[in-house]
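Ticket #4471: structure export looks truncated?
Reporter: QA, pipeline team
Priority: medium

Steps to reproduce: submit the single chain below to the structure queue and open the exported record.
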Amino acid sequence: MTETKNLYQKPVHPKHVTKEIYNDSPVSVDFIVPVKTQVVAAFTGKVLMLKRDGQRGGEGQEFSEFENFVELSHENGEHSRYGNLDYWGVVPKVNVVVRKGQTIGYSGATGDLKGRGAHLNFMIRVPLKGNDPGAYRALEIRWQ
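Actual output as written to the record:
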């Protein structure tokens, strides 16, 4: 597994986290936190895409379309993705540069919750070259 080149700060304050669950496929971390917990940029980057109007969450792929998220682009071609955010819980707009530690949203319970309830799903990935704009490879996160 390839590690990130950048060092990332954790996107939620540890005092709010009841559990960290490391997932294998794709490589990501679920931070179990209460709804409306502040989420910050783990590294300075530009907002590539976001969704903020999802109002549903539950168990199963059928809920994936309702997930609210922010994706940032960073130096070294890495992208950070913050998922399962609250309804209208996304702060920045597309193409805006956000600084490490700046608030980008609030945790929620939207999308496929995988039986975990409210949480923040966080991953670092790099887009794959080719015709599929949604294809990426997840990276093992190096924390600062």
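Status: closed, not a bug. The export was complete when the record was re-opened. Leaving a note from the reviewer for reference: The chain has no helices and twelve strands.
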